[in-house]
Amino acid sequence: MTVKEESIINVCTGEVGETQGMKEIKGYDDKLKSARVKMDEVKKENKLLKLSLSQKMENYQSLKMHIHELVQQINQSKGSSLMASSNDDESNLVSLTLGRFSGDSCKREDKKVQENVELDGLELGLDSKFHLNDSSQASKINPSPENSFDHEKSPTPKTERSEDDEVLEQNPLKKPRVSVRAVCDTQTMNDGCQWRKYGQKIAKGNPCPRAYYRCTVSPSCPVRKQVQRCVDDMSILITTYEGTHNHPLSASATTMASATTAAATMLKCGSSTSTPNHHGFNFSASSNNNLKNSYFPRASVATSLSHPTVILDLTIPNYQYSSQYNKSYLSSFATSTNSFIERCSNALQLARESKFYSNKNCIETSYPYNVHGNTQEEEIVMSRDKIAAATKAMTHDPTFQSALAAAITSFVGNVNDHQERKSGPNNSNIKLDDKKSTFELSFSHPAAHANSYLNKFPQSSLDSQHQSLTSSYPGHPFALSAASKSRFMSTLADEGEQIKL
DNA sequence: CGAGTTTGACCCGCGC
DNA sequence: GCGCGGGTCAAACTCG
């Protein structure tokens, strides 16, 4: 029997004074009223949340439909493109140049129309590929002169704006570039691709002319490169690549293309974080983006007129590398970097799922209990546990570790051991110890060569007998660099999560 | 004659 | 607004 019921009985039986019983009933009535008010508030809040949820669902559905329509339009456009290419009827060509004007005087109008088309979400381009790692894909719903049919039939008019220009207009951060420094006697480096020179200019501060090339393997390939001799050392040829090939590459061209694409992808990974700088990928936490003299002697980041640029240095002073040697390095760089990025992306997804679970609590903070019957505090503890578990799973995942090791050993390189480079980073492994805040980098090449690692990781100790190197990472440059090398860590850091590696 | 190169003109973003 | 400099264009030229 509850106190309230007892009081009522007492009142009815006259066992208690009438005044006292009435007071108690009145008190309970007040409590009941306040509870009802609270219940009403909760109901209202619940309605608002339901409304918000339904709106979000509607937005989601409309977006889904929009994407579906876009895909259909793309497919139709592709079909039209195929039909047009198989038909010489000029009317077909005209019908495929929607939204475009010819002539110099129409330049502004051309731009406006393109912008309008973009705003309307219409797809007038004829070739829309969805490459995750291609910055040019940012314009996948834009009308693309590069990809339009008549572009392939005739040279690009001067007034037309390229796909790249569209990207630049939308994004203040210009397209990432990959600059390769290599000792080369010839006019250009043989990278396996076919190039056509379209310009030459003497840039300020360098008497050597800078040559401009574009890829001619495919007429619509957006890739360009600049070739210039280094002002400090004329034997060094600096080749700067921009863009991603949209066509199959020969085996000889794949090495360089993979390396440059991987490097550019890393830049994009970094620039996708909320870090307000425009330098793209943060290799180090310092303001100095050039790591040439720090811990990654062959890979560094620089900017040129807001162009984020990765510099792959294939010219280590005092060491002569053959072209095959560099090729090996580039292959290793591309493979390990892509693996690293993929692994970090997967880890990030895992973290986000945990994060979503955590965020769900925020929505439920108005309620003392959630649908599972757990208190808010219990849920918070549970979500923390889940994040911790996810973090642990990631940092202890052998594949994640090997990917990290691959990336690190690739970046760090080894200035002595050719064999080790040829075998790639697969021979290295990293063990992380959260409790001791250390990492152990083990390797399977002669310990004598491991000294190169030691030089690059101060505060490290080398166990030559076990061919391993141990370093503490809090505040260590390696830790900063490695952490900033992934979307996963930088994103979590932006969100205030403490992830120890 | 076609493909590629050269080179002066032009465009455009950026800093002052 | 103006000048500078990087980047691109396209006509003229060269070469096989």
UniProtKB/TrEMBL annotation:
Keyword annotations of the record: Coiled coil, DNA-binding, Nucleus, Transcription, Transcription regulation
Keyword DNA-binding: yes
Molecular function terms from GO: DNA binding
SUPFAM superfamilies for this protein: WRKY DNA-binding domain
Residue stretches in coiled coil: 25-59
Bias type Basic and acidic residues, positions: 148-161
Annotated Gene Ontology cellular component terms: nucleus
Region entry Disordered, spans: 134-177
Cellular localization per UniProt: Nucleus
Record keyword Plastid present: no
Compositionally biased residues, Polar residues: 134-147
Domain WRKY: 184-250
Family: Belongs to the WRKY group II-b family.
Xref: PANTHER family: WRKY TRANSCRIPTION FACTOR 36-RELATED, WRKY TRANSCRIPTION FACTOR 61-RELATED
Protein name: WRKY domain-containing protein
Native organism: Penstemon smallii
Phylogenetic lineage: Eukaryota, Viridiplantae, Streptophyta, Embryophyta, Tracheophyta
